[in-house]
Design goal:
Blueprint (H helix, E strand, L loop, with lengths): L2 H32 L2 H17 L4 H24 L1 H14 L2
Length: about 100
């Protein structure tokens, strides 16, 4: 594509490129939030406080704690595998598919 073609297609490709950038930023933020261990730690703390306050029993506490600890382990495994590398590959695949 020559410079003139790029210039003529700018009214269409510009907003589409910006929309793609915004979508990638939202996806990256969502992944970072999902993989934030502080979220799980806060939920574990709140769960323990509910147990101490007596709003849940030991069985419910242990079930919820096991679920949260499993989620934390999965989160750490994903982080160890390199989410940033996976996101970079997805971004590269998206831009090369254009």
């Amino acid at each position: 594509m020559g410079p003139v073609s790029r210039l003529l297609s700018l009214p269409i490709s510009g907003p589409l490129g910006a929309l793609g950038w915004v979508a990638r930023q939202i996806a990256n933020a969502a992944v970072q939030q999902l993989l934030d261990p502080a979220r799980i730690e806060a939920e574990l703390l709140a769960l323990e406080m509910r147990l101490e306050a007596g709003t849940i029993d030991e069985v419910a506490f242990e079930a919820a704690e096991a679920r949260l600890l499993e989620e934390l382990a999965e989160m750490r495994a994903i982080a160890a595998d390199g989410v940033d590398d996976a996101m970079a590959e997805a971004t590269n695949a998206e831009t090369s598919g254009r």
